[in-house]
Design brief:
By secondary structure, the protein is mainly alpha-helical. It has one domain. Helices cover 67% and strands 12% of the residues. The protein is built from 4 helices and 2 strands, in the order H-H-H-H-E-E. Strands 1-2 form a two-stranded antiparallel sheet. It is elongated, with a radius of gyration of 20 Å. The two termini are 17 Å apart.
């Protein structure tokens, strides 16, 4: 079970990093600028910076989680699931 969690963790983090890299190129791939009127230059700049920041944060945080994977997985191991009712979930440290 522990090995399966580790594999799923790394697969999901690598996919997140790849989506972050891919998102840098989304405006050019899907030609976002064709749908925007060119007289609104501030709108184009705002969309560009929002996309760059999102891409950088997604790629950077995913890369950080890859590098610090052992520590992140050690934190996951600190929690043991006890029970989860409709409105109440309880966890126990061990």
């Amino acid at each position: 079970m522990k090995k399966g969690i580790k594999i799923l963790y790394y697969i999901s983090v690598v996919i997140s990093a790849l989506v972050g890299v891919w998102h840098f190129f989304v405006p050019w791939m899907f030609q976002w600028y064709d749908y925007l009127p060119m007289q609104y230059e501030n709108l184009i700049v705002g969309i560009d910076y929002t996309n760059y920041c999102f891409s950088l944060l997604l790629f950077g945080l995913s890369t950080m989680l890859i590098v610090l994977g052992k520590r992140a997985l050690a934190l996951i191991d600190c929690f043991r699931y006890i029970s989860c009712n409709d409105d109440n979930c309880q966890f126990e440290l061990y």
